[in-house]
């Protein structure tokens, strides 16, 4: 079965089953009443024929609508829109060899943090984090908007920087950090050939809202999402290795949670 038809049947299973039953009943009625005369057989024949046409129109309409929606998704490289368990997001990060993140703070959940820590211990993984500066007023505003205290985002950023130091080694560390003062637009996570695009909605942080999975390399990803990252990344000072990271944390008095100081 062609993939488009298979996707249609999977996405509209209830419609397909009900319509198939009604279609079958209509055919049976027409077959039983075929050639019979009288007002009652004629009435049931007309009802069955009308039901048959209605079923065909319904299936055709649903198929055409789904095809149009599917084409719109494909045009923007969209593969799915769904709530993702934090465990799944963490698992996706664990095996990735290239991770780029643009968020206010990250990861904001123990499951995702475990995934990031596992990635950091992988000598092949390259990580770039574009996060809000802990002193940013916008970070305080976003923390409040996510239903947290005003200092929540700053604590999360510091915690993540400490993780970067603790879970990498001097000779194998492959990370860069940029702490911006500005607005990131929307949360985006790149991992290998996939991209997760999130929302900054009020009430909760982005991991607890739906994620849009985008195909990496699509026009929308390259011309819009990647440009969002690059534009902010290119104008923001970087922390490029563990020595610079240690000095940055030292200047802020945040060395107490480092596993090995200096």
Characterization of the model:
Helix 5 links the parallel strand 2 and strand 3 (126-132). The chain is of the alpha+beta class and 262 residues long. The chain has two domains: 3-75; 81-251, Endonuclease, Chain A (2-Layer Sandwich). It is built from nine helices and eight strands. 52% of the residues lie in helices and 15% in strands. The longest helix is centred in the N-terminal third of the chain and has 37 residues, at 39-75. The protein has an eight-stranded mixed beta sheet, sandwiched between helices. The mean pLDDT is 82.
Mean pLDDT: 82
> What number of structural domains do the residues give?
2
Number of helices: 9
Label the structural class: alpha+beta
Question: Residue share in helices?
Answer: 40-55%
Strand content: 5-15%
CATH topology of the largest domain: Endonuclease, Chain A
Question: How would you write the strand order of the largest sheet?
Answer: 1-7-6-5-2-3-4-8
Order of helices and strands: HHHEHEHEHHEEEEHEH
Separation of termini?
61 Å
Radius of gyration: 27 Å
Regions with little confidence, pLDDT below 50 for 5+ residues: none
User: What is the assigned CATH homologous superfamily of the largest domain?
Assistant: Endonuclease Chain A
- Biggest sheet overview: 8 strands, mixed
CATH architecture of the largest domain: 2-Layer Sandwich
Query: What's the CATH class of the largest domain, please?
Result: Alpha Beta
Query: What would the principal axes of the Cα set say about the shape?
Result: elongated
**Strand tally, please?**
8
């Amino acid at each position: 079965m062609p993939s488009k038809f298979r996707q249609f049947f999977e996405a509209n299973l209830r419609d397909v089953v009900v319509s198939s039953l009604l279609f079958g009943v209509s055919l049976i009625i027409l077959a039983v009443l075929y050639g019979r005369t009288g007002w009652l057989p004629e009435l049931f024949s007309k009802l069955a024929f009308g039901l048959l046409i209605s079923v065909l129109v319904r299936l055709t309409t649903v198929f055409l609508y789904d095809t149009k929606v599917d084409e719109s998704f494909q045009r923007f490289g969209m593969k799915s829109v769904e709530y993702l368990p934090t465990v799944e997001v963490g698992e996706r990060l664990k095996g990735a060899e290239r991770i780029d993140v643009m968020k206010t703070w990250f990861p904001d959940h123990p499951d995702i943090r475990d995934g990031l820590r596992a990635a950091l211990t992988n000598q092949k993984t390259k990580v770039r984090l574009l996060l809000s500066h802990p002193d940013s007023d916008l970070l305080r505003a976003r923390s409040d908007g996510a239903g947290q205290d005003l200092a929540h985002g700053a604590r999360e950023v510091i915690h993540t920087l400490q993780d970067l130091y603790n879970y990498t080694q001097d000779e194998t560390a492959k990370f860069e950090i940029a702490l911006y003062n500005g607005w990131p637009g929307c949360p985006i996570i790149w991992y290998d050939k996939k991209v997760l695009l999130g929302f900054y909605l009020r009430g909760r942080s982005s991991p607890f809202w739906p994620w849009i999975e985008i195909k990496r390399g699509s026009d929308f990803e390259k011309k819009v999402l990647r440009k969002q990252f690059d534009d902010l990344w290119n104008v923001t000072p970087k922390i490029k290795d563990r020595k610079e990271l240690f000095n940055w944390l030292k200047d802020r008095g945040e060395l107490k949670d480092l596993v090995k100081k200096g």
